[in-house]
Here is the input.
Amino acid sequence: MNNNGENNNQNGSLPPRNTRFNFSNNRLTSAPPSQRDLPAHERAIPAQPHLTGRKQQHTDKTGPLVFNVASLLRDFEGAHRDYDFEQDVLPMGLEEGEKPVQATNITGHIRFTKIRGSILTQGQGEADVVLECVRCLNDFEYHVIYDIEETFRPLIDITTGYPVKTESLEEESDLKLDANHLLNLGEAIRQQILVSLPINPVCGDDCPGFSSILERVNATDSEAEDATPAEEEEAEPEVIDKRWAALSKLLENEPEK
Here is the structure.
């Protein structure tokens, strides 16, 4: 049997066996194969920071209030990321016809947590908003402290790449990630600032109230009175129609009662 096998190999009837190593002279002479050349099930699995206990560096922030949460969506349930955010100006988007309002000096801290395939956002922030005092009608800067707790649902499944279907009205009302799994925190902050603003804003305890308005009105009236004599002097004399001249003479001659 061994002789037949040797004859077949010599005649070239059997293809040579592919091996990763060269065993000539009983020594290992070739370099180990790269991970790319190995089958998927034989490739080494990279160490996961949350499993090894090493501190993970988050570099998913793509803008002042925009965050890439794709890596968090691939993580285990309950995984979270923490960020500090800061932005100079954020329009409040009030209705047309009202005085435009915008928030400035927006700062805060936010935590993103993966829960049931969605991203739960929880945090707190501060901002300054210029409002008009209802008593003295002067503009003043109002400092807002707001809390954030919103759920963002993905539009695209991170695993399959297919659109995600909403199963309830509650899910439809939630804020959405975009198709690239970017989370824009600006809308959530805008809503929280608006609901934190006072209905009747007052500039402070030392507000002059209506007295400042009365001073403005009195100043305007005094200016109008000072201008009245000059206007009367410059006024042109009244012109009487000739057809009514006879009647005007009768009125002049009529005795006073």
About this structure: Strands lie at 66-68, 80-91, 102-115, 118-132, 139-153, 175-176, 182-184.
